[in-house]
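Before the break, one more example. Copy the sequence into your notebook; we will annotate it together after we see the structure.
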Amino acid sequence: MLLKAKKKRYLTVTHNEALIYDGFWSDLPFTEEIIINKSIEFFDDKEPCAIHRGAVHMRLLAELEQLLSTPDFQKLFCLYTGFPMDCAVHLSEK
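Here is what the structure looks like once it is written out:
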């Protein structure tokens, strides 16, 4: 029996036609400042270990996913990633 691989959400981000991110949604990079700030907010931890970093990363991804089809998505996406506010975000499945 062959198991069908589950498709993953894939993200391409461009700015002025230059590619600035091309990878899986789950690997989306967040700025160090956001990771630290959210680690303090969620865990009162200003020097987060790998476990807290991973938990912060998952919570930020979940928060952004809830906002995907809202006007707030772009602003928060750019704030969390440090990408330019006028970047183009394209989601697909691979």
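The chain is about 40% helix and 20% strand. The radius of gyration is 15 Å. Try to locate both features in your own notes.
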